[in-house]
Amino acid sequence: MSELTECANVRVDCVRKSLECSQYSSEDYYGFNFNVKTEELDRMGMFIYNTLEKYEVPLINMYIAQIKDIPSNNIDSINTIDKAIKDSASLIIEAADKYYEYMQSLCYRRR
Hints:
By secondary structure, the chain is α+β, with helices and mostly antiparallel strands.
């Protein structure tokens, strides 16, 4: 059994889902959940922020959802965080573009 380590579950909200998508999901945003050691929280928070910028992924909000003890093998490393953001960047950017178009269409309907 793996040793337990105190970690922060960091939620990263990148793009708001359209109203149609939100009704089928409990999550309102497209984004990420990362488990990082509480003692490394400041450093990892800056790494997440900088990695989002590197891949041009929008950021709405980043916060600690909870602190919990988790098995050491479930802690996200710099490599896993970078890979997750890199692999999802194009999909999240596309979702941001679609959401922007959706919001514009709502504004034009009201005119």
